[in-house]
Write a structure and sequence with these properties.
By secondary structure, the protein is mainly β. The chain is 0% helix and 48% strand. It is built from no helices and eleven strands. The strands form two sheets. Strands 2, 4, 5, 6, 9, 10 and 11 form a seven-stranded mixed sheet that branches. The protein has a four-stranded antiparallel sheet with strand order 1-3-8-7, with no helix packed on it. The protein starts with a strand and ends with a strand.
Length: 127
């Protein structure tokens, strides 16, 4: 099982950009589809996007489509979340998650279906 550590959060002005990274331990990273989620205070954990094992497929929540991009580098055991045109409503703790996949499909949109989570990184967007 992999272990995940996010980094790259911080404070940014609305309209700005941030790039998050999620580094995985272990030699089976390429066996996992990866997901990004976020949770704002008082709200449930929300699906942001997912990327397939090989990185060839991605899916995004409507709220971030066209602004956020997920990518991965299996040689570096890392998945990335590039966030552009940030809005105050993007403020949340961002989590990466991994789900073991026997095929090359995407990860699910339901957080309960993921096997492993990182500790989260805070993203704050000020207006």
């Amino acid at each position: 099982q992999v272990q995940l550590v996010e980094s790259g959060g911080g404070l940014v002005l609305a309209g700005g950009s941030l790039s998050l990274s999620c580094a995985a331990s272990g030699r089976t990273f390429s066996s996992y589809a990866m997901g990004w989620f976020r949770q704002a205070p008082g709200k449930e954990r929300e699906f942001v996007g997912t990327i397939s094992r090989g990185g060839g497929y991605t899916r995004y929540a409507d709220s971030v489509k066209g602004r956020f991009t997920i990518s991965r580098d299996n040689a570096k055991n890392t998945v990335y979340l590039q966030m552009n045109s940030l809005k105050p409503e993007d403020t949340a703790v961002y989590y990466c998650a991994a789900v073991l996949r026997p095929s090359y499909g995407l990860g699910p949109q339901s957080p309960e279906q993921y096997d492993t989570w990182g500790q989260g990184t805070q993203v704050t967007v000020s207006s």
